[in-house]
Design a protein that fits this description.
heterodimer; A: mainly beta; four-stranded antiparallel sheet; globular; B: globular
Chain lengths: 113, 111
């Protein structure tokens, strides 16, 4: 079945550092891939989505591109700020069924000022 | 912006107790979901629905029932709560198959 894998459970950076969060996926269909962000005390919210391989999703300084060859969908940002501290989830949606979303386990980012 | 409201926001119950978590969305989205969030597991789908009266089983349904009474309202029922169901529960809705709108969560503790 469909799945996404995030191996980085926690990431700690200093302000202005480069962020790279790893995500790989498995699916038999052509996926639409997402990054959701969850700020403390809130529900997750959509950060960006990419519907086509090799296209780039960009939002709030974050960007992601998915690579069908390596089945990867990494999130990156050139210069993080303390306000970026949150949990980041990679997800894909199964378009063949009842629109089931599959989430990774999440990566908790802490940015130290 | 879609609004998804969950209640209660916090609940403590005893083992074997009966709990109902409520969710209401105000934008007439077709799809509604219940997830639980646990450290080390991320978000796991319990039940979902694509319209009033419809129910679909998610990935971790054991011990949970759900009911979608109207387009707006989706309930999660724990009839015999167990400590393993201590978790943060999120309701979400979706209309366009691409964006989930989450509520703020309901924290349940089963003692």
């Amino acid at each position: 079945g469909d799945s996404v894998t995030q191996k980085q459970g926690q990431v700690t950076l200093s302000e202005d550092d480069f962020l790279f969060i790893n995500c790989t996926y498995s699916t038999t269909t052509y996926p639409t891939l997402f990054w959701y962000v969850q700020y403390p005390g809130q529900g997750p919210q959509l950060l960006l989505k990419v519907t086509t391989a090799n296209n780039k999703g960009i939002s709030r300084g974050f960007e992601a591109t998915y690579d069908k060859g390596t089945t990867s969908f990494h999130l990156q940002k050139a210069s993080v700020q303390e306000s970026d501290s949150a949990v980041y989830f990679c997800a894909l949606v199964d378009l063949t069924g009842y629109q089931n979303f599959y989430f990774g386990k999440g990566t908790s980012l802490t940015v130290i000022p | 912006e879609a609004a998804v409201t969950q209640s209660p926001r916090n609940k403590v119950t005893v083992t074997g107790g009966n709990v109902t978590l409520s969710c209401r969305q105000t934008n007439s989205h077709n799809y509604m979901y219940w997830y639980r969030q646990d450290t080390g597991h991320g978000l796991r789908l319990i039940h979902y629905s694509y319209g009033a009266g419809n129910l679909q089983i998610g990935d971790v349904p054991d011990g949970y029932k759900a009911t979608r009474t109207t387009q707006e309202d989706f309930f999660l029922l724990l009839e015999l709560a167990s400590p393993s169901q201590t978790s943060l529960y999120f309701c979400a809705s979706s209309v366009n198959r691409f964006t989930l709108y989450f509520g703020e969560g309901s924290r349940l503790i089963v003692v």
